[in-house]
Design brief:
- Helices cover 55% and strands 16% of the residues.
- It has 2 domains: 54-150, Tumour Suppressor Smad4, CATH 2.60.200.20; 177-225 and 233-379.
- The two termini are 89 Å apart.
- It is built from 8 helices and 13 strands.
- A 6-stranded antiparallel β-sheet has the order 2-1-11-10-7-8. A 5-stranded mixed β-sheet has the order 4-3-5-6-9, with no helix packed on it.
- It is rod-shaped.
- The chain has 381 residues and is an alpha+beta fold.
Length: 381
């Protein structure tokens, strides 16, 4: 019936020609079932209408390289894959040999995965089987297939299903986020408390050389350089010279110990700074206002503690310089008999003593450590 209006049949026939041009078809193309026909015109018309599908689909294929082609769906199914014997053969390494099929089932247009390695994706969601709507996009490997439907095809109503699923998923996600934040905050608080405890156990005002310096100071207690000036010349008795030379050796030993002490304290301060910065970074990751306030308060205390230890280091460096100057003046007067240095030696004074420097450091460290211990209790509550 060439004069009969049959737009679907015309579109499919035109599409068949297009698919044949662009893709290799199977060796044996599908043919409609052989029917025993009554050649009366009215019987032929009836059979065409009964066997003709009431809807059509176009598969709009976009290859990984961006090439676009259109392929009509041939009822009742089209198999898609990389092998040439598929109805739709795709040159895509991400596509399995027999990847998926498009099927007409009970008025639905269905895509079904055939056990592919990389899966079949509908609108970026992996599916094993799904009913299709006009405008859906199926992705297999790097190839995207847009579905264009026309006619009396049944269309799944995903909106209500996805809305309910979205509500449930949203509630679950919110609960999960809250739980993860709570768990993460607890874990972070535990790490912060552990790092702070370890930091406070270190004494920045202590070093092994302090005991040796204390022993040196005990040797120097009550002793002084014995010299005399006679007509602008240094006069020292043999007994006094021997005692003065002993003092000079002690001064030199003290200067060496002061240098070793300043080096040890400086090295300890480097470790203190690294530990402090680690604690500060942990505190900055707190999410609750209370924890962040406690961390900021603790950081302020630890910065003051660091400053006190720096003051001790600077004081020891100055004490070392004073000791070296005293040793130099003593050598100039006692050994080289330089009268010009005698007055400076007679009026020499230390800017401070190591015991006083250590005491000042420990007082400040004790104060700041007490405040930091209070912060620990607040975080552990």
């Amino acid at each position: 019936m060439e004069g009969e209006d049959d737009p679907i049949g015309e579109r499919l026939e035109a599409g068949d020609l297009q698919a044949t041009d662009l893709h290799r078809a199977r060796g044996s193309a599908r043919t409609p079932p052989i029917l025993k026909l009554d050649f009366r015109p009215e019987s032929w018309l009836l059979l065409r209408r009964v066997n003709q599908p009431t809807w059509s689909a176009i598969l709009e294929v976009r290859d990984p390289d961006g090439t676009r082609t259109r392929h009509p769906f041939r009822h009742p199914r089209i198999k898609v894959g990389r092998q040439r014997d598929n109805d739709l053969s795709l040159a895509d390494e991400g596509v399995s040999h027999q990847h998926c099929e498009f099927v007409s089932e009970h008025g639905w247009f269905v895509v079904r995965d055939l056990g592919s390695q990389n899966g079949t994706w509908l609108n970026d969601r992996r599916v094993g089987e799904a009913r299709l709507r006009d405008g859906d996009e199926v992705r297999i490997g790097g190839t995207r297939i847009r579905i264009a439907l026309e006619g009396d095809v049944r269309r799944p109503n995903r909106r209500s299903q996805w809305r309910a699923f979205g509500v449930v998923l949203g509630i679950a996600a919110a609960g999960l986020v809250i739980w993860r934040l709570w768990a993460h905050e607890g874990m972070l608080r535990a790490r912060y408390v552990s790092a702070l405890r370890e930091h406070l156990q270190h004494d920045p005002c202590a070093a092994p050389q302090l005991g040796d310096l204390d022993a040196i100071d005990k040797q120097l207690a009550g002793r002084s350089i014995a010299i005399a000036l006679d007509k602008g010349e240094v006069r020292i008795s043999k007994a006094d010279e021997q005692a003065d030379r002993e003092l000079l050796a002690i001064y030199r030993r003290k200067a060496e110990l002061a240098a070793a002490l300043s080096s040890a304290l400086t090295q300890g301060q480097q470790g203190e700074r690294e530990s402090l910065e680690h604690i500060v970074r942990l505190g900055q990751r707190f999410s609750t206002g209370k924890d962040r306030k406690v961390a900021a308060f603790t950081e302020g205390l630890l910065r003051e503690r660091e400053k006190a230890a720096d003051g001790l280091v600077q004081g020891v460096v100055q004490h070392r310089a004073d000791t070296e100057r005293l040793a130099g003046l003593t050598e100039a007067v006692v050994v080289r008999r330089e009268a010009a240095s005698a007055a400076a030696l007679a009026h020499f004074q230390f800017a401070s003593t190591v015991p006083k420097l250590v005491e000042a450091c420990r007082i400040e460290v004790a104060r700041t450590s007490a405040g930091a211990t209070g912060a620990l209790k607040a975080l552990e509550e």
